[in-house]
Amino acid sequence: MIPAIINIMSAELVSQYQIRLTFDDGTRQEVNFKPFLTASVHPEIRAWLDPQLFDSFRIEYGELVWGDYALCFPVADLYRNRIGTPSLLEAA
Question: pTM (2 decimals)?
Answer without folding.
Answer: 0.86
